[in-house]
């Protein structure tokens, strides 16, 4: 990468025992030649983009998060629904770099140049919204069984409701059993919601909102554990999890 003027960095940002781990990003940035442009594609927790730019002053750092599904990553990369570039909006150089980055990213129906903080929040909004939809769909499914409703009929109607279902939501987030189990799993949803919930509790000064997010977490943990889905990922994010209680026969 010595001869590259622009370097895209997409490395893991794991959540380990509830703590965001940015060590890999910090390790790889110095591998880039100084005075180059770095585009961070990894999920960045609130405030970190600006911290990294201040620490690594020999680089121009922007944040352009990815919006990919694990099953359709290649297609999503080639055909993004929008492009986001987060910058230091007080810097003319950053604004010029943002225009350059937009010019080389795959074309999208919409493109936005925003602040670092806005880019970080947009990414978390994407993943946490999907997470809550998955958990809520599981609640609807369980309720349908209790009231004697045919879930297939409910799903058909939901998928036809434009206020609820987009194409992506219909295909991925409505059916309660997905990818071998129930609940929001995979490499992103579990870790990102955990960090979002922790950060909201610390920053927002909203105890009721924090409790709501924690309730979503607890319910999702229950769904994953009972269906034995992504247990290794789950236990890596939430250390010392209690095993779900078995129903008495």
What does this protein structure show overall?
It is a single chain. The protein is an alpha/beta fold and 249 residues long. The chain folds into two domains: 6-121, 3-Layer(aba) Sandwich (Rossmann fold); 125-237, N-(1-d-carboxylethyl)-l-norvaline Dehydrogenase, domain 2. 51% of the residues lie in helices and 12% in strands. It has helices at 23-28, 48-55, 73-78, 92-104, 116-147, 151-159, 167-172, 186-203, 207-227, 231-237; strands spanning 6-9, 15-16, 19-20, 37-40, 60-63, 83-87, 111-115, 177-178, 181-182. Strands 1-4-5 form a three-stranded parallel β-sheet, sandwiched between helices. It has a two-stranded antiparallel sheet with strand order 2-3. Helix 8 (186-203) runs antiparallel to helix 9. It is globular and about 65 Å long. It starts with 5 loop residues before the first strand and ends in a 12-residue tail after the last helix.
Features:
2 domains; 10 helices; alpha/beta; globular; three-stranded parallel beta sheet; Rossmann fold; single chain; 249 residues; N-(1-d-carboxylethyl)-l-norvaline Dehydrogenase, domain 2; 51% helix
What are the SSEs and their pairings?
Elements: E1 6-9, E2 15-16, E3 19-20, H1 23-28, E4 37-40, H2 48-55, E5 60-63, H3 73-78, E6 83-87, H4 92-104, E7 111-115, H5 116-147, H6 151-159, H7 167-172, E8 177-178, E9 181-182, H8 186-203, H9 207-227, H10 231-237
Parallel strand pairs: 1-4, 4-5, 6-7
Antiparallel strand pairs: 2-3, 8-9
């Amino acid at each position: 990468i010595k001869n590259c003027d622009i370097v895209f960095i997409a490395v893991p940002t794991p959540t380990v025992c509830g703590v965001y781990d940015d060590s890999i990003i910090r390790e790889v940035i110095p591998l880039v030649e100084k005075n180059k442009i770095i585009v961070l594609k990894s999920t960045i927790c609130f405030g970190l983009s600006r911290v990294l730019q201040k620490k690594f002053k020999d680089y121009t750092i922007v944040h352009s998060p990815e919006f990919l599904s694990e099953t359709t990553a290649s297609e999503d990369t080639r055909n993004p629904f929008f492009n986001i570039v987060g910058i230091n909006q007080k810097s003319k150089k950053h604004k010029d770099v943002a225009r350059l980055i937009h010019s080389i990213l795959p074309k999208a129906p919409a493109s936005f140049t925003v602040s670092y903080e806005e880019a970080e929040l947009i990414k978390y909004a994407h993943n946490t919204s999907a997470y809550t939809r998955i958990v809520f769909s599981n609640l609807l499914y369980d309720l349908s069984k209790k009231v004697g409703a045919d879930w297939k009929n409910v799903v058909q109607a939901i998928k036809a409701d434009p206020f609820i279902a987009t194409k992506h939501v219909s295909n991925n987030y409505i059916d309660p059993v997905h990818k071998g189990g129930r609940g929001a799993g995979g490499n992103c949803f579990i870790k990102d919601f955990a960090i979002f919930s922790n950060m909201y509790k610390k920053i927002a000064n909203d105890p009721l909102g924090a409790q709501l997010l924690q309730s979503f977490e607890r319910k999702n943990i229950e769904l994953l554990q009972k269906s034995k889905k992504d247990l290794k990922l789950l236990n890596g994010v939430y250390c010392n999890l209690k095993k779900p209680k078995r129903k008495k026969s």
